[in-house]
Design a protein that fits this description.
It is built from eleven helices and ten strands. It is α/β, with parallel strands linked by helices and 293 residues long. The protein folds into three domains: 68 residues, Arc Repressor Mutant, subunit A; 114 residues, Periplasmic binding protein-like II (D-Maltodextrin-Binding Protein, domain 2, 3-Layer(aba) Sandwich), CATH 3.40.190; 93 residues, D-Maltodextrin-Binding Protein, domain 2 (3-Layer(aba) Sandwich), CATH 3.40.190. The protein is elongated.
């Protein structure tokens, strides 16, 4: 077995800093070392890896495209090491720290606002940072270590390093323009849907294909409110969660139940989970179980 390279956390931290900051001087300031110490640390990282990570562009050094796997590894190692440091600090000091939460819009606005209010009230010392984005983006941020926990649509395939706990099954319905009855699937469309690559879009397209409905997508949006308005303007048909289509301003009506999407709470796999992450995940799953028939 080939021996592992003797890399240090500091060297990986230096690499991520120079990738993310506009200049090496700012990167050195960020990690608290001199520019020469930063340069020496990165040269030692290249030596230990046996791979060139930088190339000359005039008087400056630029990261090579081929260094992308090393950068990804560095970010993941720093995220996991940060998990360990946060966990250790909480155990030693009893402080709660920071929690970076990602949610799709339906989870944040429709399904779990009360749970978020309860969590804030019972954890006043936690700095809760909420990001609302589509599922695929949330899971990418979770893998990269930029989120601690995410509530999203279940991914179509398992993601290495991520565990998903079911929360609730959310019903989706098909809606036609005003005055148009939802008849046979062969008469549906054209469509205004969530963008390609969306987990919900995949669920919808799979179901429409099974029903033999034509799939002609003429417009896309991540925002349910935009899709609702497109239907009202007779741009096309759509499929939306009933909770978002039939509530709020200018709701749709006359929809026909089509399928469902599974919402999950996703966290990184590891023996040292942030206790606050576990507490929030438990709060969310308990609420979902209480809503089961």
């Amino acid at each position: 077995m080939r021996p592992l390279p003797d890399l240090s956390i500091r060297q990986l931290e230096y690499l991520v800093a120079v990738v993310e900051e506009p200049t090496w001087a700012i990167a050195a300031e960020r990690v608290g070392v001199s520019a020469s110490a930063l340069s020496q640390g990165l040269a030692e990282l290249e030596r230990r890896l046996g791979v060139a990570l930088f190339e000359r562009e005039g008087r400056r050094r630029a990261i090579r495209d081929s260094a992308a796997p090393v950068i990804t590894h560095a970010r993941q190692v720093l995220a996991l090491t940060g998990d360990l440091a946060d966990w250790s600090h909480r155990i030693q000091s009893g402080r709660s720290g920071r929690l970076r939460l990602g949610m799709i819009d339906a989870a944040a606005v429709v399904h779990f606002p009360e749970e978020l209010r309860t969590f804030r009230a019972t954890h006043p010392d936690v700095e809760l940072l909420l990001r609302v984005s589509p599922s695929a983006q949330l899971l990418e941020l979770l893998v990269a270590g930029e989120l601690d926990i995410a509530v999203c649509v279940e991914p179509p395939e398992p993601i290495q390093g991520i565990t998903c706990e079911p929360l609730l099954s959310e019903k989706l319905a098909v809606y036609g323009p005003p005055g148009v009855s939802v008849g046979r699937p062969s008469t549906w469309g054209p469509w205004v849907l969530f963008p390609a690559g969306s987990h919900t879009r995949s669920v919808i397209v799979d179901t429409l294909s099974q029903l033999g409905a034509p799939i002609d997508v003429v417009a896309e949006s991540h925002q349910p409110e935009v899709l609702r308005e497109m239907v009202r303007l007779d741009t096309g048909w759509t499929v939306l969660p009933i909770s978002q289509a039939e509530h709020g301003d200018r709701p749709l009506s006359g929809g026909k139940a089509l399928t469902a999407r599974q919402l999950v709470v996703a966290t990184r796999v590891g023996p040292l989970l942030n206790p606050v992450v576990e507490q929030l995940a438990l709060l969310l799953t308990q609420r979902s179980r209480s809503q089961e028939p």
